[in-house]
Amino acid sequence: MLGKLLKLMSTKAGITVFSLLIQIAIVVVGVLFAATYFWWIWLVFQFLSFCICIYIISRDINPSYKLTWCVLILLVPAFGGLVYLFIGRQHTPRRVRKRLKEAGNATQVLFNITNAELINRRKSLNPTGSVLADLVLRSASYPVYGNTDTQYFSLGDDFFPALLRDIRAAEKFVFMEYFIIDRGEIWSEICEALIDRAQHGVDVKIIYDDVGSMFTLPKRSIKQLKASGVQCLPFNRITPSFDMRLNNRSHRKITVIDGTVAYTGGNNLADEYANKVERFGHWKDTHMRFSGDAAWSFTVMFLAFWRILSRQEIKYIDYFQPTPEHSGASGYIQPLSSGPGRDDHLIQSAFINLISSAKRYVYITTPYLILDNEIQTALVHAALSGIDVRIVIPHKPDKRTVYLATKSFVPVLIKAGVKVYTYTPGFIHAKMMIVDDERAFIGSCNMDYRSFYLHYECGALLYNTDSIHDMKADFTETLKTSHELTHDEVENVTVFTRLARSILRLMAPMM
After folding, report:
1. Which of 114, 124, 421, 464 lies at a CB distance of 3.0 to 4.6 Å from 331, suitable for a disulfide?
2. 445: helix, coil or strand?
3. Catalytic site positions
4. pLDDT tens per residue across span 384-408
5. Is 470 in contact with 289 (CB distance < 8 Å)?
């Protein structure tokens, strides 16, 4: 036992956690000690907490987030204000905002030069679709693309073989950005393919999240990649000190190959996503392959982050690859990204628009259903208007407290007419929304506060593509192996569970 503890403490994660605990202890002991000899210090910290509460209330942020922090600060006024200053602020450093703006400006120039005609393609959409397309275009300058084939993967079991084939065929560059990279069969095969491509002169770049991959990506694997010519960078590197950006993670899943093929969806690079190991029963996740013009936006998304992390100048035009005409391509694609570096909460806005514009049905899959007031109101109003709203969540949770919080939102949805199902074979990690056979979203974004307000996320909006019908067919099949929750079932719980749900719902913006 002692040996395992010492081994853990020698790792980066162990050192970081231990350092943070020491700093917390120093602050707490320091404040208590000082307050013992100087009574006014206690009043100063309480006044600071009061002022911070006033500041939080005045900010233009989600009301639930305000309520949670104000309650926590006022419960422990001597320390609550300090905690908020260290980890609570939804803040992106000025230098990062500047680099995002620089990348956006350079990207927009290129869009205007090479893809100006694509912006007008939104006019080919029906009125409902064009409203959403204009929202995304005007908020963040993400164009609408035609000339793009789409292929839907209903399971990671099918996605990874296709991904490997494309990587092995790469001739110019391979860009990959993932929240979790985990040792195992999947990563071994991908790692081998990336090294092979790099040794053949292909430009291979990888971004991994430093928290998401903290316990899973071995240092030796990174050293092996770098030694073979693969460039690797951690997103938002963690340090053994308080950092207000610790909560801002890259949860995005992006692969771009030669500028003509791109992937996004819910799958990380780990064996459980392909059901090669079992963690929470059968693991269901989905992904989408884009072949054609829409791959360009994913190229730009990746390069913008690479510019920020590497501090290298990026000439975007060097990576632009004209794509041939795809005669079988149907509909239109609009890739998009969101995160705390922007103030528009773009994917959340797209979700609200999708739900509110539905005429017949809204089908959703999400591993976490921790709703803010805006999304909950949209779902409730849609159901009360007679729209067929159905949501599938996991049956076997990966995080019990988060799952308990998820269940706390179910009663009000069912009462309004929303049908909520649990995926009985195990854990569903897919993040999708399908509306009226005409519009859909697939990507990395969960329906929770963390994805909407703290994480960097990505995905794609689909308009009238053939793959929307594949997504709907898969959703229908998923319902056959799912259990529909009833109001009595979710409400008939113990007093302790009801209390726990209430507390967790209050804490939801931090989960």
Report:
1. 464
2. coil
3. 251, 253, 258, 429, 431, 436
4. 999 999 999 999 988 888 887 888 8
5. no
